């Protein structure tokens, strides 16, 4: 890409990761630090998400995956779960048209079968409406857990074996990858977790094999384009060797 083709404000040295995945953490602590209810932290978290999707498109990121509700989040108090469900509903209802207009393709990963049918329909609507968009892909991990995703994939592979369509010796890494929730989405180059916690918490365990991990102390509601760019700069300092010897930075 020549300098002239790069998005405004981006220099050639600013090599953009193709896929950035984000663990949006710290909404509750952001609210507690201000004496506000946790729900206010989540609402401000949705605003941070809007900013981030916009910035990602401007920077030239092609895929962004967000951890919006984990399979383990059901264990939170019922009121908070219902608040998070309401936020997702409103996010899709209020923002889908705008995302579509901006040529964003929405994809959903996670378990659908045990979701409230109305939410299930909204997720399908978001995917269907934006199916042919070829700008930024926004992958929403909802009711998502990576071990659950891998387990579902293994069950489907076992079904293929039982039907005689594939033999056990034909199962390789490609086959396993093919039976995950979004097999055509490339692995994340960069995974960011906000709020200072340093773990993956059952997020994209298979796909993260060679991802660079960047942990930042900012609480998610304060995340913005500058924080995203700082995380990308840290990613660019890393040497990505993929187990080999050749250093490839930020490519
Ligand atoms: C972590 O903060 C965040 C979540 C569990 C949910 C993330 C959700 C949003 C940003 C808003 C919803 C967006 C959509 C699209 C539904 P936390 O509550 O774990 O914070 P804490 O660790 O400080 O308590």
Output the strand order for the largest sheet. Answer: 3-4-2-1-5-6
Task: Please compute the radius of gyration using only Cα atoms.
Answer: 19 Å
N-to-C span: 13 Å
Low-confidence stretches: 9-13
What percent strand? Answer: 5-15%
Judging from the principal axes of the Cα atoms, what is the shape? globular
- Give the structural class: alpha/beta
Determine the mean pLDDT.
92
Query: What proportion of the residues is helical, as a percent range?
Result: 40-55%
Bound molecules: farnesyl diphosphate
Tally the helices: what do you get?
7
Largest sheet: 6 strands, parallel
| Number of E-state strands | 6
Order of H and E elements: EHHEHEHEHHEEH
How would you describe this protein?
By secondary structure, the protein is α/β, with parallel strands linked by helices. It is 41% helix and 14% strand. It has 7 helices and 6 strands. A 6-stranded parallel beta sheet has the order 3-4-2-1-5-6, with helices on both faces. β3, α4 (117-129) and β4 form a beta-alpha-beta unit. α2 packs parallel to α3. The site of farnesyl diphosphate (FPP) has 18 residues, from α1, α2 and α3. Farnesyl diphosphate binds at residues 24-29, 42, 45-46, 49, 68, 73, 84, 87-88, 91, 195, 220.
